[in-house]
Amino acid sequence: MVNVLNCVCFCGQVDREYAVQKALHSAGFPVPQPLLYCSDTDVIGTDFYIMEHVQGRIFRDLRLPGLSAAERVALYVAAVETLARLHSIDVTKLGLQGYGKGAGYSKRQVSTWTKQYRASAHRSIPAMDELSDWLGKNIPSSDNEVTLVHGDFRIDNLIFHPTEVTALELQFGSNWTTANLRSSSFYLDVSVVFKCSSSSVKAVVDTLFLQSPKGHAVLQQVQQFMKQHVLPAQQAKARAAGLWNLFLPAVSGLSQVDYSYIAEETGKCVFAAEVFNCQAPGLCVDVF
């Protein structure tokens, strides 16, 4: 059994993703073994690659319900150890020089944020100007350090051993689309803040907005109906109209600027990205 990855993400490229996963696997890092990359878009409508199937557990709920406190601690420790191992890899030995822009990531980020803010600001906000100046003057001393970061590292992107508290694999290549070369400290800070915030928000939402048993059952019926009947019908119409894989320049002939206007329009509907086959890669891993 293998996983066929149909990556439909405007921000990432499957060939780039295949290269980093292949390099990591050859170095003994726990990722599924990539088996084949196909650039022929006539096969399934987009380029794709095939990797091995990994048996294990994936925890979608960050609170890890059903596990003891000791088990939860052990799982998160295993996740952190996997992240530390990734950040300890010598990228030069992987042959990934030029994979990203490298040193100076924090400086580039602050510069980009500042330019974006000033371009969109319609009035002066002294506090924002002070923040921008402070950030520019306090770039971390480690900004020139370069390592490989995953880009979307979190507990539900890890495959754990079926019974033991061991992180078997950093899950599916679809989640390597945002991998890059930059400082690991910046990435770790953002990851911790985001994961803590998302977990806290979910806990509050689950407490305040409790569904009745009937409401939950009907919701599941609606979700299944959407998946089986609504989305497939709309996808067929999009394909027939030639509005498929518009995010792929090689297929659509569109520039990034062209597609940005289209993405703005499809963003007005919560499931439009799936209709036009332009959804995020984590949603499109099929098992054969």
From TrEMBL:
Gene Ontology molecular function: flavin adenine dinucleotide binding; oxidoreductase activity, acting on the CH-CH group of donors
Signal sequence bounds: none
Record's protein name: Aminoglycoside phosphotransferase domain-containing protein
Domain Aminoglycoside phosphotransferase: 13-168
One Pfam assignment: APH
Entry-linked InterPro entries: ACAD10-like, ACAD10_11_N, AcylCoA_DH/ox_N_sf, Aminoglycoside_PTrfase, Kinase-like_dom_sf
